[in-house]
Each structure stands twice: as C-alpha cells, then as structure tokens.
Amino acid sequence: MTGGPGTNQKPATAARIYxxxxxxxxxxxxxxxxxxxxxxxxxxxxAIARANRAFLGRAIRYLADSGVRQYLDIGxxxxxxxxxxxxxxxxxxxxxxxxxxIDPVAVAESQELLEGNPYATAVRGDLREPEKIIEHPQxxxxxxxxxxxxxxxxxxxxxxxxxxxxxxxMERLLAPCVPGSHVVISHGTVDGEPVxxxxxxxxxxxxxxQTATPLSVRSRAQIERFFGGFELIEPGLAxxxxxxxxxxxxxxxxxxxWRSRMLAGVGRLP
Length: 270
Ligand SMILES: C[S@@+](CC[C@H](N)C(=O)[O-])C[C@H]1O[C@@H](n2cnc3c(N)ncnc32)[C@H](O)[C@@H]1O
Known about the structure:
Blueprint: H1 14-21, H2 29-41, H3 45-65, E1 70-74, H4 84-91, E2 96-101, H5 104-114, E3 120-124, H6 130-135, H7 137-142, E4 150-154, H8 163-174, E5 182-188, H9 197-210, H10 220-225, E6 231-232, E7 238-239, E8 262-268
Parallel strand pairs: 1-2, 1-4, 2-3, 4-5
Antiparallel strand pairs: 5-8, 6-8, 7-8
Helix pairs in contact: 1-2, 2-9, 3-4
Bound molecules: S-adenosylmethionine (SAM).
C-alpha cells in the first residue's frame, strides 16, 4: 500500500503516521513525509508510540482480568500487534469489541482483520459526534449498554484541540455508561517537565499544515477533567511507562518516564 500512482496526493493522517512509527505498511507517501518531518523535530516520537501501545495492552489486560466483557475503542487506528480484541479475548474469549476511527483506511483494515469474528466489528465514526457512534446499528448489535462497557480514548483526544468541542463530546459519549463501566485515556501533555516551547510549536505546526488531523497537548488538570464522574484507579493519571508496568514493557523511558510526554489512566464509574 506504500506509495504508488495516485496515492501521493492523499493528505497525511494520524492513523497512517502512527502506523509508520510502529513499523506498519499501511501508509502513503504523504504520511511518510509528515512522519519524517515530525521525527526530525521530535526524535522520541517512535518510542512514545511504542510506549502508548504498550500502555493500551496493559490497560486491556487489567480490564479483562477484572471481568470487563465489552470494549468501545475510539480512535483505534490501523490494526497492529496487540489489538484490543486479541488481548481481551485471550482472557475473556467472547469479549465484545467495537473499533471506531475517523480514517477510512483504518476502518477498512480493521474490518478485513475482523472478518468472521462474531464478537468484534469496526465502524467509521468521529468522536465529536458521539451519538452517531452510540446509535450506530453495528455498535448496538455488538455492545449492550445496559451492561458495563470500557470506553477507550487512547492517543486520540489531542486530535480534538478545541476544548469547547472535546469536553461536551466526552460527556455525551460517557453518558450511556452504567456503573462498573470504565474509561481509558492517554493524552499528550506539557506538564511536569522542562519543555522546549519552540520544538513543541514546530511539531504541532507540522500536524496542522501537513495532516488532516491537527493536534494539541493539554495539562494534567485538563486531562483529568475528561474522566468526569469516573474514579481513577491506582496509580491514577501516570506517565505512560508508570501505569502498572510489566517486565516485558519497552525499556525506552524507564529512567525518565516524563520523557514519554503522555499521561495515561483508567477510570471506573462507581
Ligand atoms: C495515535 S492513533 C492511536 C491509535 C490507537 N488508539 C493506539 O493508541 O494505539 C490516533 C487515531 O485517532 C484517530 N482519530 C483522530 N481524530 C479522530 C476523531 N475525531 N474521531 C475518531 N478517531 C479519530 C486517527 O485516525 C488515528 O487512527
């Protein structure tokens, strides 16, 4: 799928840039160019993508071990190693999983991977329009909102830079959740460590200019606000590598976890 006639004009997207960083093949020339430009400004981005993916895996294992049977993964990306249904279904074989992404390539690849899996599906959706996701017939077919659901927003909320859009969308998305539901969030931040403002600005400029998905980072307090009435479970909102670490995690930020530049947490609705 890389390059090829007619593909060069596609705008870069977050899903395909992330796929490039994780070593995937579902990315086009524009994605590779944007990915390399970001990499030149922020060389740790590949390790951050790996750490984010590892956090996702640990969070799903934690949830599945706690008995969570339903997952709504929003901004799920292009399928790669350690997909949510694979991790969850290892523990709960009939765990239900719905993948949602704004990028049609991510959705098509997910649908192909899930063919024949009665417990998992992928639909196109935009987290800024939560009702359309919740009411989607395929989502309703797989998930039962009268039972607890884990809603995942891993590495996606910073693609909704406008607070006036992001917070109300989250509230509406989590509104149908019954007690015992969970929300999983990871989000880029500038809190807690010295930041090179110029480097940050030029990186976000590339996202704005060269991709279909502009990005912005938020403070710890702003990220915590997304959890609403969900109570953060131990260890709270933590740097990616510090959220319930496992021996098999990537070693990238072991000594300086704040260099992962993303905070992550899991909340539970009491
Ligand atoms: C960095 S990737 C994260 C993938 C996956 N959640 C993970 O952590 O491995 C971000 C994903 O969010 C998707 N995305 C961006 N804005 C979105 C929106 N408004 N609604 C749904 N998905 C969105 C992108 O297409 C991309 O696939």
